[in-house]
Structure formats: C-alpha cells, structure tokens
C-alpha cells in the first residue's frame, strides 16, 4: 500500500491568525450585545432585543469557532491518528443548533408581540441599530480576511444573520419614529427569523454530512472513480472511498487493478497528480492489485456496480 501525505505548515500559521481574529470578534460582539440588550429593553423593541440575543448567540458561535480552530491545530496522536480537524464539523453542528433555537425564540416572541402590541421608542432603536450595523460590518470584514473553512464560514454566517437583524431593527426604528406603526417591529423579526432558518438548516446539513464521513458535497464519487480509471495502466477501480477529516482536508483510498505491476510507480505518481489537480485531494492511499483479482469498482453508498474495465 502506498500513500501520499502533504503537510501544510502555512495552514497552522493561518489557523493561528484566524483564531486571534475570532477571539477579537467575540469580545467586540459581546460588548455591543450588552449595549443593545439594555437599550432594546428600555425602548421596548423586540427587534433590538432579538438582535442583542442574536449577537450573544454569535459570540457563543465565535467562541466555539475560536476553540475549534485551536483544537484543529493540535497534532495527530496515538488516540487521534488523523488529528482533531473534525472539531470544525462539531463546532458547525453546535452553531447551527444555536441558530435554530434562536429562530424558535424569535418566532414565539414576535407572535406574542403582534397579539399584545407595546410602545417602542423609535429614535433610540434607530441609533442603536445603526451602531450595531457598523459593528457587524466590521466583524464580518475581519472574519472574511481570515482562513476560510467550514468553521469560520459558520461564524461568518452568524454575523451576517446578525447584520440583517441590525438592518431590520434600524428599519423598524425609523418606521416607528416617523409613523408610530409598532407592528413593523415583530414583523421584521419574523422575516429575519425565516432567513436565519434557511441558513441554519444548510449549515446543519453540511455539519452532519461531514461528521458522518460523507463524500464532500462539491465532489462526485462516480466522477472520481471514472477519472482514476482513465490513468494509463489502470484497468479497474474498486473499494473507492472519499471523506473529509476537516473541511479543508479530503482523504481518498482505493484499490486499482493493474496488468503490469512493474508500471505501478508511474501509475501511482500519475494518479496522485490527477487527483490533486482536478479534485484538490492531497491525502491519497492507493492499493495495487492484479487485474485477475479485480473486475469492477463499486459505489458504496448505493451498492450499484460500474464496470470500468475494457
């Protein structure tokens, strides 16, 4: 059995930088969440209180992301031979569940507010929401400059959702200040909740897919198998498996049927280069087998068989 292993020292450097950005974002987000909560409670604005709650949720998400970024950089050990990169998927799962809980709270509170309207101080809401919008834009900009993986994208998703919450609170404050129409406050809270729901379900799907060692969503197992079968000297492919250890590290293992074992070194080199250039797969384990022993390659998740031999 032969395997290619690519070590990325720059990945650790970027990870450390991303961790510092995430910690700074946590402090900034929590600080302003406190300001929004106090003003929202005093002004009677559900949209502003919801935005503050969302920012607290964001801070928790950022805290989890920062911790996961640190854990993911830990080296492989006897207990975790692949390292702890999958902490990214766990963090994304926790983040998505937090978002779903926030949507439920927003929906219940908004319905209650529609049934029993309350007075809202539009001017105070508008000014605070405008400042919150600037804070969220700054945090989103910081996160976009860091290393992009599932974990940081999850954190950025939280912040973008909160940015929309600030916009909603700003609009609600302006409308109430000029017209006195208070139902705009819970209605916009419901609209933002719907947007957060869509994003959180998408994030939940990605996290569960990674934890269950699914084929990365941007890759096709069948296409990879057919591509390997085109390598000169390869007559068939079977036991093909593709999965992710982290959002950026894709693994592949397969058995290749060959006629001339003397050509194996060249076949292995060609296969590695092809997988890396076409699919971005850098960690490859390939097992050569005599063609007499192999006839098919199989799609594990369906059980269907594809004959790629001539």
Write the CATH homologous superfamily of the largest domain.
Cation efflux protein transmembrane domain
CATH topology name of the largest domain: Alpha-lytic protease prodomain-like
User: What summary fits the major beta sheet?
Assistant: 4 strands, mixed
Q: How large is the share of residues in beta strands?
A: 5-15%
**Oligomeric status:** single chain
Order of helices and strands: EHHHHHHHEEHEEE
CA-based shape: elongated
Structure, described:
This protein has about 300 residues and is α+β, with helices and mostly antiparallel strands. Helix content is about 65%, strand content about 10%. It is built from eight helices and six strands; from the N terminus they run E-H-H-H-H-H-H-H-E-E-H-E-E-E. The chain has a four-stranded mixed β-sheet. Strands 5-6 form a two-stranded antiparallel sheet. It is elongated, with a radius of gyration of 25 Å. The two termini are about 25 Å apart. The model is unreliable at about 1-15 and about 300-310 (pLDDT under 50).
Give short descriptive properties of this protein.
single chain, 310 residues, alpha+beta, Alpha-lytic protease prodomain-like, Alpha-Beta Plaits, 4-stranded mixed β-sheet, two-stranded antiparallel sheet
Quick summary of this structure?
With 310 residues, the protein is α+β, with helices and mostly antiparallel strands.
């Amino acid at each position: 059995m032969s395997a290619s292993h690519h070590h990325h020292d720059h990945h650790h450097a970027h990870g450390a930088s991303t961790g510092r950005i995430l910690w700074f974002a946590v402090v900034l987000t929590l600080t302003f969440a406190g300001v929004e909560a106090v003003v929202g409670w005093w002004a009677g604005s559900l949209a502003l209180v919801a935005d503050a709650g969302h920012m607290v949720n964001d801070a928790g998400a950022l805290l989890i992301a920062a911790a996961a970024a640190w854990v993911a950089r830990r080296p492989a050990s006897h207990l975790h031979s692949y390292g702890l990169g999958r902490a990214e998927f766990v963090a994304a799962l926790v983040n998505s569940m937090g978002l779903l809980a926030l949507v439920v709270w927003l929906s219940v509170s908004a319905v209650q507010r529609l049934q029993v309207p309350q007075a809202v101080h539009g001017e105070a809401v508008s000014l605070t929401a405008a400042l919150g919008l600037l804070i969220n834009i700054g945090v989103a900009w910081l996160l976009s400059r860091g290393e992009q993986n599932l974990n940081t994208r999850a954190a950025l998703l939280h912040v973008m959702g909160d940015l929309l919450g600030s916009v909603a609170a700003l609009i609600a404050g302006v409308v109430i200040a000029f017209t006195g129409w208070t139902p705009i406050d819970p209605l916009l809270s419901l609209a933002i909740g719907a947007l957060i729901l869509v994003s959180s379900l998408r994030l939940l799907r990605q996290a569960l897919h990674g934890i269950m060692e699914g084929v990365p969503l941007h890759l096709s197992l069948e296409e990879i198998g057919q591509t390997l079968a085109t390598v000169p000297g390869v007559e068939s492919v079977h036991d093909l498996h593709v999965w992710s250890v982290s959002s950026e590290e894709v693994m592949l293992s397969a058995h290749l049927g060959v006629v001339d074992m003397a050509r194996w070194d060249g076949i292995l080199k060609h296969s590695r280069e092809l997988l890396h250039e076409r699919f971005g797969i850098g960690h490859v384990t390939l097992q050569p087998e005599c063609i007499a022993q192999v006839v098919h390659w199989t799609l594990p998740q369906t059980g269907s068989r594809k004959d790629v031999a001539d």
